[in-house]
Design goal:
It contains four helices and 15 strands. It is α+β, with helices and mostly antiparallel strands.
Length: 189
């Protein structure tokens, strides 16, 4: 197997996990899309009250978080021009350079699909709050999440079991799924 060269690495289109500090995720999304760069901000519904009127509104589910789908070179150029996004990095072992966090395309597409369903039972949680027991990988058959795979776990503070879709150990989305729709996936499949 041939390792990609540093130049090829810069040209790879990946879903990079980024931060848009000071709650600039929506501004960053708008500016990235204006440059033709694909990106995704997980959103949720909340009730907002203004002047005594309550209104259901979509807001960022996790402040400062944005996923950017582009080659490093294009992201670097955007960062140079705008300076409103930063990479999430994984600390290195042994004192080497930190690695930029990125998510494989298939995993990101599943995460986007779960988020875009707009289900009110969807919760965004830190992966540290999820205790996944070995052998709990499941596939959903039927219902609005037909075909999704994830980990069926007990989430702290919830009475029922949840399907958890984790992305790059940065964020996870959990939602309630009826037990009769779940098939346990055998190890190794």
């Amino acid at each position: 197997m041939q390792m990609p060269s540093r130049q090829n690495e810069v040209d790879l289109v990946r879903w990079y996990v980024m931060s848009a500090p000071y709650r600039n995720e929506l501004r960053a999304r708008e500016e990235l899309q204006g440059k033709g760069i694909e990106c995704f901000v997980p959103m949720r519904y909340t009730i907002v009250e203004k002047s005594g009127i309550k209104k259901r509104q979509r807001v960022p589910a996790i402040h400062n978080l944005i996923f950017v789908h582009a080659p490093l070179a294009q992201i670097q150029e955007f960062k140079r021009q705008k300076g409103i996004i930063q990479y999430y990095v994984k600390p290195s072992r042994g004192g080497g350079p930190s690695e930029k966090l990125w998510v494989p395309d298939g995993q990101m597409q599943r995460f986007i699909a779960v988020c875009e369903r707009g289900d009110d039972s969807l919760r965004y949680i830190s992966p540290d709050d999820v205790h996944i027991a070995p052998g709990t990988r499941v596939r959903v058959h039927g219902g609005p999440f037909d075909g999704f795979e994830g980990n069926f776990v007990k989430v702290a503070g919830r009475r029922n079991r949840q399907l958890v879709v984790s992305v790059a150990n940065v964020v996870a989305a959990s939602l309630s799924v009826s037990a009769n729709l779940v098939e346990v996936i055998p190890d190794g499949e």
